[in-house]
Amino acid sequence: MTDVISVQGLVKRFRSVVAVHELSFDVQSGTVTGFLGPNGAGKTTTLRALLGLVNATSGTATVFGQTYRELQNPSRRIGAALEASGFHPGRKAIDHLKVAAIAAGIPKARAGAALVEVGMEPAADRRVGGFSLGMRQRLALAGALLGQPEVLVLDEPANGLDPEGIHWMRGFLRSYADQGGTVLISSHVLSEVAQTVDHVVIVAGGRLVASSTLAELTDRTSGGAVRLRSEQAGPLRDALVARGAAATLADGDADAVVVTGSEAKDVGRMVADTGVPVFEMTTDGSNLEDVFLQLTASEAGQP
Length: 303
Description:
This protein is α/β, with parallel strands linked by helices. 35% of the residues lie in helices and 26% in strands. The protein has helices at 43-50, 93-104, 109-117, 133-145, 163-178, 190-194, 214-222, 233-242, 264-274, 288-299; strands at residues 3-14, 17-28, 32-36, 58-63, 78-81, 151-155, 182-186, 199-204, 207-213, 226-229, 246-249, 256-260, 280-283. Strand 1 and strand 2 (17-28) form a beta hairpin. It is elongated and about 70 Å long. The mean pLDDT is 90.
């Protein structure tokens, strides 16, 4: 995979306020990357710098090795939805997209096709002023898809969606990436991000806190505890210890063995080598929300 989005040493000051401070991260092709951080962390400013909506004080934010302003036909390379607003309330959904298509030099026929892609075709002739927030979110996504871009940059796309809509959005983004597209998604809905993303970038106070795969991040912060359950827990523990694992019997569960300091894949290999039957194997890792709060609190100097 290659890096499609690259942010390197990005700094953005608004007079005396430093919104982004020496921020660097990359987003690879064919992945969904979660861009996480508390309010005021610099997420929106970073996305606006990437899209050429604000000028960086220093550093770079590029797509395909170029700034947004250098891209030829940018709407066909990168589609963005930073907020579900900016719609004329008296305009029909289909007309809103036709106007956006004309402004971007895209055939008007894409307006109808984009509505179909986001499941909004039945609302094509409804006026936007009567739309719920969730419907506006889908319309904003349809606008980002007009040029059939290779990259999507979305800010809180699940905001206002009902459970069915969230499930649909998750499947849509996963399918988009699996077909070769690249997604950078900013969100506070951490449980939804955990079910969608391949990679996470966490910022706090305008600074990078963490950038890694989701599995690496949770393993690193939890200590990588692996829980095994077997009817032969004692022999299993002894066999794992003999192979160098830090294995102990779990308190309160006669069938459980806990292994710390080893990755799940390595524990699995050792278990297979012992020949002791195991009927359950789970990772006692922190969830993404625990990790997020832990890391951002540390950056902010909180206990």
